[in-house]
Design a protein that fits this description.
alpha/beta, Rossmann fold, 8-stranded mixed beta sheet, two-stranded antiparallel ribbon
Length: about 260
């Protein structure tokens, strides 16, 4: 990995079907890498990766629909997410990129590769399978607004430590950067069998699994790597959010893969 520190990311946005899509552009003089976060997240979760890779890659981190500074959407369908990912590359005039995705973003990444293969030069999928069966309905009990930040943290309970980056102060109180109802609907669309999309592409792929993950089993990950050509599996000592738990090791695995392209 290069030791050259990239510039501070630039926040930008564009409009798709009347909706604002916001993203961070970390700059860098190298090839483009589009990064797609998971549920409850936003593009800035990939800032440590950008620092580790330096300026050898230009990381563009999208706030996906309904997350971060991007607008809510009328739906959270598979097609909608994939079209948004394609739209940011088109907006930036990028004909092809490496696409990295965590969880929700990982499925969006490999579905983009399957449905618009010319846009995806290589895939990096973090801790999500070709079959998804999740449940985010627990978030429906979270408060929409509270009078203080401390009150919000208390009502979020054990989930609060995973949501610190999403806490915002609004004119009417404290809340989250997303609507839990949207996240629940998004997860319902995400659940299902996506083997056809995973196996549709043959661009180089890196599948990263957290060794303590409760989302992607070791057996399923091995099956994904075995069945798809040109796919490498790496397991790192983490849970579901590998890029946050072991950022240096995660960046090293990504860098090694990128260097071999």
């Amino acid at each position: 990995m290069t030791s050259t520190i990239p510039p501070e990311p630039k926040r930008a946005a564009f409009t798709v079907a009347g909706r604002r899509l916001s993203f961070l552009d970390f700059g860098g003089s190298g090839r483009p890498l589009l990064a797609l976060h998971g549920h409850f997240g936003e593009g800035r979760t990939f800032a440590p990766l950008a620092r580790e890779l330096g300026d050898s890659w230009r990381i563009i981190a999208l706030d996906q629909r309904g997350h971060g500074l991007s607008d809510r959407a009328p739906d959270f369908s598979r097609t909608g997410y994939v079209e948004d990912a394609a739209a940011v590359l088109e907006h930036l005039g990028i004909p092809g990129a490496v696409v990295l995705g965590h969880s929700l973003g990982g499925v969006n990444a490999y579905q983009l590769a399957a449905r618009v293969p010319g846009l995806v030069d290589a895939l990096i999928v973090e801790d999500i399978g070709a079959e998804v069966d999740g449940d985010l309905s627990f978030g429906l009990s979270w408060p929409r607004r509270t009078q203080t930040r401390a009150e919000l943290l208390e009502q979020l309970g054990p989930s609060a430590r995973h949501l610190m980056e999403a806490i915002r102060e609004y004119p009417d109180g404290w809340g989250l950067a997303f609507d839990p109802e949207d996240m629940n609907a998004s997860q319902q669309h995400l659940d299902g069998d996506h083997w056809n999309d995973w196996l549709a592409g043959d661009c180089p792929a890196l599948l990263i699994r957290g060794s303590r993950s409760a989302v992607l089993s070791a057996e399923h990950a091995k099956d994904m790597a075995a069945r798809r050509p040109r796919t490498r599996l790496v397991e790192l000592p983490a849970g579901h959010t590998v890029h946050e738990t072991v950022p240096v090791e995660f960046a090293a695995a990504v860098s090694a893969f990128l260097g071999a392209l």
